[in-house]
Design brief:
The chain is an all-alpha fold and 91 residues long. The protein contains four helices and no strands.
Amino acid sequence: EQLPFFYKFLCGSIAGVGGTLLTYPLDVLRVRLAMGGTWVSSVKQGGLTQGLAPTLLGIIPYSGTCWGAKQTMLELFPTFAHRNPNIYESL
């Protein structure tokens, strides 16, 4: 039984939000340190989550659509190729 696209989209969106929440502060810190700042000045400058909301608004449709499309294509592959995808085709 195939899942509806909405569930695939929702799973991809949740995974994208989770990954972004874990890595975004480190990415902000990396950029600020590359610009010549220090750890303390980077935290004082406005926190490490500055700009997180617009990033999350962009990652929700992006990761949801990517994951939903990938899973849908994997489910439809046997219909067109008359076989299951191998490991390289499933990536």
